Structure formats: C-alpha cells, structure tokens
Amino acid sequence: xxxxxxxxxxxxxxxxxxxxxxxxxxxxxxxxxxxxxxxxxxxxxxxxxxxxxxxxxxxxxxxxxxxxxxxxxxxxxxxxxxxxxxxxxxxxxxxxxxxxxxxxxxxxxxxxxxxxxxxxxxxxxxxxxxxxxxxxxxxxxxxxxxxxxxxxxxxxxxxxxxxxxxxxxxxxxxxxxxxxxxxxxxxxxxxxxxxxxxxxxxxxxxxxxxxxxxxxxxxxxxxxxxxxxxxxxxxxxxxxxxxxxxxxxxxxxxxxxxxxxxxxxxxxxxxxxxxxxxxxxxxxxxxxxxxxxxxxxxxxxxxxxxxxxxxxxxxxxxxxxxxxxxxxxxxxxxxxxxxxxxxxxxxxxxxxxxxxxxxxxxxxxxxxxxxxxxxxxxxxxxxxxxxxxxxxxxxxxxxxxxxxxxxxxxxxxxxxxxxxxxxxxxxxxxxxxxxxxxxxxxxxxxxxxxxxxxxxxxxxxxxxxxxxxxxxxxxxxxxxxxxxxxxxxxxxxxxxxxxxxxxxxxxxxxxxxxxxxxxxxxxxxxxxxxxxxxxxxxxxxxxxxxxxxxxxxxxxxxxxxxxxxxxxxxxxxxxxxxxxxxxxxxxxxxxxxxxxxxxxxxxxxxxxxxxxxxxxxxxxxxxxxxxxxxxxxxxxxxxxxxxxxxxxxxxxxxxxxxxxxxxxxxxxxxxxxxxxxxxxxxxxxxxxxxxxxxxxxxxxxxxxxxxxxxxxxxxxxxxxxx
Length: 722
Hints:
The structure is a single chain. The chain has 722 residues and is of the alpha/beta class. It is 29% helix and 17% strand. The chain has 21 helices and 26 strands. It has a 6-stranded mixed β-sheet, sandwiched between helices. Strands 17, 18, 19 and 22 form a 4-stranded antiparallel β-sheet that branches. Strands 21-20-25-26 form a 4-stranded antiparallel β-sheet, with no helix packed on it.
C-alpha cells in the first residue's frame, strides 16, 4: 500500500524523491508525516476522514474534527464573537486593507475559541478552524437572496477584496495557517435558490472565463486560498461538486491549486437524487472522488466502501483525496497532539475585544452608501427635535445579514442617533409600521408624529427574514430569493404619509443586502442612505455618518436597476444585459456610485508610458483635488473600454481602484498601475486576446455611462492605442 500511495502522490507532483529540492524542510517533514499517517489507516478509517464530521482515531493520535465552520463576516454560529458588516457592505468599502485587518481579527477570535473548545472536549460543528468563507460568486441578478454574502457584481473587485479576506484569515506564516479559508461556491452559482439542487448551467466560454471564474482564480493564484467549495448546480452537465472539468482540468491543472476541495452540503447526494447523473449513492461518491473532490459535507461518502467493492474507484483514489486534507490539518497544527503552530497561544481576551469592535465600526462606516443628500446631512447635533421611526431602527436582526455570530455588544440605529445629539434634543421614536405586513389598527399615530420634528429619520428595508439562503429566509415565498426589488407596499405608503405636505426634512435609511427600488424613495426623501447589514457596530457607525463625525465613503458594489422587468430572466446566466459591463439603461444608481460631504475634482489623466503595447503594466497618473472644507476619502476607480466595447466586449471594465484620503482644500497626485492581462478581451472560446485599436481610460467616481453623467459623477478620460 505504501508503494501505491507513493505513486499516487507522485502523480500530484509531490514525489518525495525530489521534495527537498522544491520545498522547505518543514513542509517536507509534514508531507512525509501525512503520507505515513494515511498509510497506517484502514479503508474504513480513510473513508471516515473524507466526510465533514470526522471521528477520532485514537491509535493514530488523531482527535475528532468537524470541517464545517463559518466565518463570513466574523466567527459564526459559535457563540460570542465580533460581528462585522455583511460582505456586500465590505465590497461597498472598496478597502482591501481594512478587510484584511478584519479577517485577521476573525482568525484571532477563531483560534482563541478553538483552544477553549478543545480544552473542554468540544469537537462539534462550527467549533473548528476550517472556515467556509469567503463567497466570491458574482451577484449577477438582484433577485438572488444570497447576493448579500458576496462582494458584488464585479469579478475584479470580488477577487481583490476576497483575496484580502483570505490573506487576513490565513495569516502570513510561510507554512502554518492561522485559519483555513475556502472560496465558494465554485462555480457559476447565483440562484435561483429553489432550483439550485438540480439546474444545469450552460454558460458561454466567454461568460465563464470573463465573469464566473476570475475571482476564484485570483484567490487561488494570488491569495493561495487553502480550500475550494463546489456548488450544488450542474455546469455543462456535470455536478459542480463532481466535475472533472472544473475541479481537475481548470482548478488543479490550469491554476495549480494544491489545497482541498469540499462539496456544498448534500451536493454529492444531489448527483444521485436530483441531477440523476448517478444510479446510486456509491456511484455519486465515486464520481466526486474521481473528479477531484476531497471532502464531502454530507454522508454519501458512507457508500465509498460499496464503490470500492464495485471497482468504481480504488484505494489509491482515497489516498489521493486524503492527502490535501491531512496537509490542511497539519498546516493548522491540529492533526495530532504533538503538532505545533505559532498561532496556538492566542488568548481569549481577543474575543469580542474593543480593538475588534473598533475595526467593525470602521468597516460599517466605510460600507454605508449615501445615495442622495439635498443639504440635510450632516445633521447638527444641537437639533431641537427629531423623530425616528421604523422597526429596523431598534431591530438587531436587520443588522446581522446571514451566517452571523452572536455579539454581546450590539448597538441599534436608534442608540447611534441618541448617542450623538445634545442633551437638550428631543427624540421621539415609534415603530410606525411592521416589516412585512400592514398594520391592523385603524388609528395610526406614526405619520403624524413627524410633523413636529425638524428632521425625521425613517428606517425602511428588509432583513434576513426576506432574503437569504434556501431555508433561512422564513418570510420569503421564493426560498430566500425575491420576485422583484420593491419594498413592501405598506412601507412605501408610510413614507408617503410622512413626506406628504410636511415641512420637515426626511432622511430615509434602507437596510438590506441587495438592490432596492429606490426611485420613489429618492424622489420624496431629502436624503437616502443604503446601510446594508452593518454588523454589531452599525448603530454607532450610522450616528458617526449622519452627524458628520465621519464622512461617507462607501460605494455601490452592484448596479441598482430601476426595475427587474427589464433584466434577463433570473435563471438566464448570460451576462448580456447584466451588471455595469453590459447594462446601457434601466439604471437608477450605477456600480461604484456614492456621495460624500464635499466636492472632489478629477484632473487630466497622464499616461506615463503611452507607447506601451500591452506587454507591460499601464502606468497612469492624475491629480485629485478636495474642493471642500471637510476631510474626504474618495474611492477613485479606473475603467478601460476596449476597441470592441459594446459589441463583443464589455462597455467598460474595472481594472483598479484606490481609496484616497484628502485633507480639506488639498490635492494629491494619484498613480495607478494596470495589469496588462486586464486590458485583454475574453474571446468566445474563453481565451484572452489583446485587441489592436484605440482604448479609452476612465478614472471616475462610478462606472462610466449615461446614468453616471446624469448624476454628475466626477470623471476624467484619456485614450491610447495598441
């Protein structure tokens, strides 16, 4: 069996005869240890270690371990932990450096909690260090309930922010992992939720390589993510969790991935019961293993012994699947009792600490997007009378999103407002309306209370009850998805009553993790804020922003359409007509859009290497001026349109971005470097090609286009030829 295992590992390009020449002594020793442990296992023990809830093997000094753990925006489902903003808000921050610090904090809390769990013999689900995050699926359609888990609609933004999350979570040691990140759900996966277990996606190779794969590739090659999770759906007829094309040909052969691949939970079973690809659980398990899956979340792998007996796979296949799993646990330092890790002594004092709360507050401030402001914000703290209304003003669930932890220090929006105003300010609060159903009392005092206030802050929107994963969103008749992007009509009717013939100013704050129909809201409100699901510090963060202690700097990571009627069908995975790259109209607010308190001007773009023929990074320079008396943090975005833009190529493509902090009435020269691979155009066969002709560069405050011009988004353009 040892000889057979050696042959298998040589096939994985880790043959130990040449190991010392290629890797450090530490890694070589750990790989040898993994091989030796596998060689001592019985077939039954090997099978037991290929499912998420693995039993201990006492004679090999292996403790029980459950691979299923969550950390989407903080250690989740595992007791007290800091709750950071939902990822859609992290995408809105356009701040990978902050996201990396946040993920490092998550890993610290996870390590500390893991140490305590081990000491009390808690080996249960959600108590480990293999976190099934981040979600870098593309938020291609606003109706998808799980879009809030993603970083938005753009592959480049998702790859940059997602990569920062991975680097922060996994730490900077050359071998050991602080925690193990997992990029999900690979691939071409973004609803409908009710169909995810059985639908087949047949994207063009252009859409596959231009839109659905780039973020995963960036996380593999640039961030060295430890794990990949296969999706439920089929892609080109194969289950994504049992696809040789995705898991072996692309992921391992083309991209060089050497970590482990885990199925989404129950996805292997779906190969038999829903996709009807296999005739039995045993065959489904064999298909997955042979395709490149290492670990099942579920229990179809219990039938692997039957698959061996039917010669659907070999023991060598099991060994090959096991090796990356053993290596992940060795990198974490948690496989056997004598394992070492530089991260094993993190104290419990980091859990839900003040330092981590400060990061959460910073992240929440940077995530919220100011969509409209008719000189009502910031609010003067000496205001005499305010009216705050709406159930989400006091509801912490509307701040959580999904896959959340449990914080012991949530602060609501009402608390955040009350914390800022003068002790002489009167604040009146009423529920006003219910989230998902109209009121039944014929007497309604809510709208009338607004008349006596200088400013009325109305909290509207949705929560994880209406959007989310298949079975979580219990108020959603679409199993977590939405039929449209309108708010419940009774919420809109309340806002109409508040704004009708009232002389006060109305600030509308919207909660949710996806685009909302804001057209009428913007028409009748004096200011509109998209708050997303900002986590535990959302209340104080909103207070910081509304009263001007912090300037708004969040930008939309997804296009807000006017309606879904003009979009392609929800289950159509063709990218034409979707996202800022292919939408020419039906846009309320464009990708990258957001206001600040102040004015910034964009100078002319200088191309520092204009004779570049696409073989070297394109070097750009531009002067940015703050023309206001406030400090501003501007999110400067770089887009490129190719000679084929609007025909067989995107209208424009985000190729870089940078947060630039400007003191009042100051200026700064900003420089950008654009990777030449990002200038290439994806062809129909999925390959990329540099097109000859004239390119247009946009450096702007939002995706270029007619709607951005109507909104007077600041922008500068330049052209170059290849």
